[in-house]
Specification:
Length: 232
Amino acid sequence: MMRVKDSVRLSSPECDDVVVKLDLEPWHGESLRPFVAGQVVRLGLPGLKEPMPGYFAIASEPGRRDCYEFVIKQRPGIASLLAGMEPGAAVEVDGPMGKGFDLAPYRGADVYLIGVGTGIAPLRSVWRDILGHRQDFGRIGIYAGFLTPCHRLLTDELESLAEHGITVSVSVKSGTEDWDGPIGYVQDALRADAPSGDNAVACLAGMNAMVDACRETLHTFGFDDSRILLNY
């Protein structure tokens, strides 16, 4: 059992979609279970069978032991209830579980993190983990895709990653008059950059169609399936 420490809206007020960063902390201040970046937990509400608990990726780095952070979109089901919770509310937590993105075997390699929408959550766990030992990897590139400019998430944090030698490409499916970034899908931005698969690994998070398209694109640049990682 954990409790809500904080809940902050991430999505723009102009955006119809409500996305929050939900922070959960232990009831009695104990350290959290260690986990691999990109793993998930099952979240539910005490005494509530419906809606059923759901699986959500941890968005905070494994080195943080006081709190789990999540990026949750308000949608029908348990996500809607979680997105509206106030500090102090109780949440049942099961996990962490799943493969996650274990980069330990890829020290010295280039790393590409590719995700869309709230799929950025498990990738955030990875890049925040990498920041603690940036020297262990080569080039780090992040490709994030959103529906429109107002659907973007974690904009300030993504921009700050340049200070650590991490390149970030943010693309939107539909642009606006004041949008001067890439328009299209993340695989389009990936194809335009043509990253080399030599001594490189890619982490994918998002809808199945996006994952399949990005995998196909990465194959053309020399990535084999052993170096295209999913967190489940």
